[in-house]
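Quick board copy: two proteins, each given as sequence then C-alpha cells.
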Amino acid sequence: MKRLNRKKTIDIVKELDAFPKVPESYVVTSAFGGTVSLVVFILIALLAISEYLVYQDSWMKYEYEVDADFTSKLKIKIDITVAMKCERVGADVLDIAGTVIASKELKYDPVSFEPSPQRQMWYQILQQIQNRLREERSLQDVLFKSALNGYFSDPVPGNDSESESQNACRIHGQIYVSKVAGNFHITLGKAIETIRGHAHFASLIKNEAVYNFSHRIDYLSFGNDVPGNINPLDGTEKITLEQKMLFQYFITVVPTKLHTSDVSVDMHQFSVTERERVVNHEKGSHGVSGIFVKYKLSPLMVRVSEEHMPLSVFLVRLCGIIGGIFSTSDLLHRLIGYFVDIICCRFKLGANQSIEVLPD
C-alpha cells in the first residue's frame, strides 16, 4: 500500500515537470557544439570565481552628520624636532577663547637634527606613502581596513641618532584642549604670561644667527591614537637657510567614527594647507618667525563603515551569470548554425548549377 502511494506521488511530481524534453533521437552532437559547450563552461567558471572574489572583498561607506559633542576635550599628540637648542624655543597652545595650555605638558629633549640611516630610510618610505595618498584616495580605505593592525608603524621610536652633536630640540608629548579653534606654535623664547596677554620671552636672545626653524614633524595627530593610521603631516620635513622664517599649517579637523569588521574606534582626520614666508618688516612681510599650527574643528562628523555583499545578493548575481551565459550561448549557437546551414545550401546549389549537360 505504501509503495502504491509512493508511486502515485512520483507520478504527480512527474506531471508537474514544466521543462521541455527533447527525445534523444533528435539530438545531434557535433565538434562545433562541443567546442561551444567547453568555452561556455570555462567562461562560467572564470566569472563565478571573479564574483566570489568580489563577494569576499569589502568597501568603505561614508556617511555625514552633525557633530553634537562640544563638551569633551580633544587630545593633540605632538612629536616635532626643531633645528635649535631647547633653551631657545618654547611651545604652547592658545585657543580662540584666550585659554593658554602651558608648555609644561610637553617634553624638550636635546637631539641631533640629522637622523640615523635607518630612520632616514623610514622617512623616505613614509613620504612615498604620503605622495600615493594624495594621488590615490582609495589607498585611505586600505589604511582604514588595516587600522589597529600595526601596519605602516614607525619601526624606530623616538630619535635614535648616535651623533654627539645635539644641535636640535625634540618637542613631544600630548595636550588636551577644548573643542574650539586655536593654534599650537613653536617660536623663539619660553612662554610667559603678562598683563597684556600671552607672549614669549626672547629678549635675551640677541644673536639672529641662532634663528633656524628648520623642522621635521615625526607625528602630529588629533584625538585617539589609531596605530596604522598615517596623518597628513607625518614625515614632513622643512629645511630653510633663512634666519626669520614663518611656517604656517592651517588644519581642519574632522571627527570620524570608524567601524570595520575588526575594530570600532573614534578618531579624528584632518586636512592641511601649508604656507611659508620670510618675515621682513621693511618689505611689509609682518609676523613672528616660528612654526604655527592653526586648527579648527569641522561641525560635521564622518561615519566610515566597512560594507560586505550580502549572501543573497551573491547567489542572485551568480544565478544571473550562469543563466545569462547559457541563454546567450544557446542563442549564438543557433544563429551560427542557421547561417552555416544557409551558406552550405547556397554552396551546394551553386555547385549543382555549374554542372554542364553534354549533347549526345
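And the next:
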Amino acid sequence: MVHVKQDIFATSALNPLTKQTESITRFTLSNDFGMSVQIITLGATITSIKYPDVNGDIDDVTLGFDDLAGYQSTRNPYFGATVGRVCNRVANGRFILDGKVIEVSKNRDNKFQLHGGFVGFDKAHWEVEKVFQDGFTLKHINPDGHEGYPGQVTALATFRLAEDNCLYVRFQAETTKPTPINLTNHTYFNLAGHKSGARGLYEHTVEINAYGITETDTDSIPTGVITPLEGSPYNLQVAANLGDRLALIHPALGFDDNYCVKFEAPQPYNLVARVSHPTKGRWLEVVSNQPGVQFYTSNFMPDVERGEVPIPGKDNAAYAKHGAFCLETQKYPDSVNHSNFPNTIVRPGEQYNHEIIYKFGVVFPQK
C-alpha cells in the first residue's frame, strides 16, 4: 500500500515571480517495502529517495538539503529540481522561431542559457493541483516573455509511487504561443548512499541504451554532430564499472554528455539506463519516452583535492566532485538550433508530454 503525507517544509519563502511570501509544501510518498520519496513544491524538487540495501539497511540515495536556505543557495547545483522551460543549454541565448529571432537570457558567463535562465522552473513555487491515493500533481504557470521565451506556459508535474518500488514522474505542458519546451528532472543519485562521495560513485556499474552522443564544444554546447559509440570509452551499451570509465575519458572532469537513446518502434517507452551498486546491492532502472538522456557525474561540484569547500548537504553531508550521477531524460540540448535534432517546439493546441519511471530494486546474493 502507498501512503501520502503532506506537511510544510518551510514558511516565509519569497516567490521570485510574484514577489509574495509563501509556504513551501512537502509530500512524502511511502510504501510497505521500505521505500519513501519526498518532494517539495519549490521547483517541484525531489529532496529524498530512501531505499533499503541488500542487508535491509535504509539510506537516502539522493543528494539534497535539510532546509529552504540550502535550496535557495547559489551553491545548489539543481539538486532534485524540475528544470525548464528549456533544460540544458541554448547556444548564445538565441534561436530562430517561425522566422523571428528569439533572444533569451544568458545566465552562464553571459554566453549561453543553462536550465531555463536565471529564474527557471527550478526556482518557481509550484501549486498543489491535485492529490491522489498514491501521489499528487503540481502546477506552474510561466508568464509570457519570462526569461525571453514567448507564450504563457502551463506546466504540470505528477509524481506517483507504486508498491513495486517504481517512482512515476510525468511532465505535461501547454502554451499560448509557439515556444520550445524541454523539461527534465535533475536528481543526483548515489546508490551507495548520499554521503558516500566519489568512493561510492566509482563502485557503480552503468549501462546506457544508446547509439551515440551529441558532440559538444568546450562549453558543452552541441555542434550538431552525433558521434557513434562503437569503439569509444563513452560506449556504455554493456554494463561497465564507472570508476574505470572515468579514468579513460576526461580524467580531470567526467561524463557530462547527452546520449541518444535507442528506441524500438512502436514502443512508446524504452529502457534508458540501468545503474547498480554491487556492494549495497541496490539498482536503478530509468525508463522514459524521451529520445535523449544527459549522463552527468557531478564534475563541477567542489574539488576538495584542489582545496575547494564541499557543499554542506542534508544530515551533515559534505558533497564534492564525483559525489553522484544524474540521468536527465530530455530532448537533445540546444535542439532549437539544430534541425537534425528532435523538435522541442510546442504550439497552441498541442501538449508536451514527458514520462519517466525510476524503478528501484536490490540484487540478493545467491545461496
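Board note added afterward: Helices lie at 68-72, 197-202, 242-248.
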